[in-house]
Design goal:
Elements (H helix, E strand, L loop, with lengths): L2 H8 L12 H11 L28 H9 L2 E5 L7 H13 L6 E5 L7 H5 L3 E4 L12 H16 L3 E4 L1 H9 L3 E4 L5 E9 L15 E8 L1 E5 L4 E6 L7 E4 L4 E4 L7 H10 L2 H7 L3 H7 L4 H17 L1
Parallel strand pairs: 1-2, 1-3, 3-4, 4-11
Antiparallel strand pairs: 5-8, 6-7, 6-9, 9-10, 10-11
Length: 309
């Protein structure tokens, strides 16, 4: 086991182990956690990735880097134990945030809510995708998770929620989420800012229209009453919002994904390319691009937390 993988496991004691990992998932897990694994540096589209990874933070002041090590991130996941993307998600956040993966503690909400000490030990809560779970569905497991999100909202703890997290946070606070394949989005999609975004400390420096990585079939059709809409796309009216009096931002798009992260996801879940895009993996790859403006939103949020909150 690599030092990075060991650190991730030691920081994770809440994964749902009801689902034994499959052979295929174990291979994918090795590909994302073992630097010597041949699949790590080459995907099915012929993309090659450098084996040298730098965890320095050139765009953040030294004080911020020090604070991140002492007040790590808490990533709330909704993923089965055999889902290889539970490891990849940590690497995606750490790469875009320019931090060490060990700075991100992981708690699987399928196994229960975090202890109060877990909230107290972090400065920023992250909430990302879910793999096989829908925020538009029903069930006791979802009600328990929505209650956790209401508690986070009540704590006013700095939180950034993307994709499933965006949908679940909206629903938890009174919004409405539906499943609508006709408005599903996958790949690099243009986001247009609202007028409110031009007055927002996080979005104000973003271009009026910028590309972002996307992958969803569910969507938010009604925002919570205290939400401020910040962005939309051609198909989806609500792509980003913040709560008016809380340090909580939510985006339907994935600011934690660069092009590499997006391709790793769609290759792990190939059915979505066929189902949503209806094209080959290679054709899909050619239509996608890097999304620096979207990635910068997540980094700017972190910087604002340190500067203002």
């Amino acid at each position: 086991m690599s030092d990075r993988q060991k650190g991730f496991e030691e920081g994770t004691n809440c994964f749902d182990h009801r689902f034994p990992p499959s052979h295929g998932a174990e291979q994918s897990r090795q590909a994302f956690t073992d630097s010597s694994h041949p699949l790590r540096w080459k995907d099915a589209c012929g993309l090659y990735f450098s084996k040298s990874t730098t965890w320095s933070s050139p765009n953040l002041p030294a004080q911020t880097a020090f604070t991140m090590q002492n007040r790590p991130y808490l990533l709330l996941q909704i993923r089965n134990a055999e889902d290889p993307m539970r490891y990849q998600e940590v690497e995606c956040f750490s790469r875009v945030l320019q931090c060490n993966p060990n700075d991100i503690r992981v708690h699987n909400l399928l196994a229960g809510e975090p202890a109060p000490a877990e909230y107290d030990a972090c400065q920023i809560i992250l909430l990302g995708g879910s793999g096989d779970y829908s925020a538009a569905g029903e069930g006791d497991w979802l009600e328990r998770i929505l209650d956790v999100l209401r508690q986070i909202h009540g704590r006013s703890q700095p939180t950034f929620a993307s994709c499933w997290g965006f949908q679940a946070m909206a629903r938890a606070l009174g919004g409405q989420v539906v499943h609508d394949l006709s408005r599903a989005e996958l790949g690099t999609i243009n986001i247009t800012k609202t007028a409110a975004a031009d007055q927002d400390p996080i979005f104000v420096r973003s271009p009026a229209i910028f590309p972002a990585q996307m992958g969803h079939e569910d969507l938010v059709i009604e925002l919570p009453l205290d939400a401020v809409r910040l962005g939309f796309s051609e198909r989806v009216e609500h792509q980003a919002f913040r709560f008016s009096d809380k340090p909580i931002y939510c985006t339907q798009f994935h600011p934690e994904l660069d092009l590499r992260g997006l391709m790793e996801r769609v290759i792990a879940y190939p059915k979505y390319i066929r189902k949503i895009a209806g094209i080959s993996v290679e054709e899909f790859r050619q239509q996608c691009q890097e999304t620096p403006a979207a990635n910068e939103i997540l980094r700017r949020f972190v910087q604002h937390v340190h500067d203002e909150w």
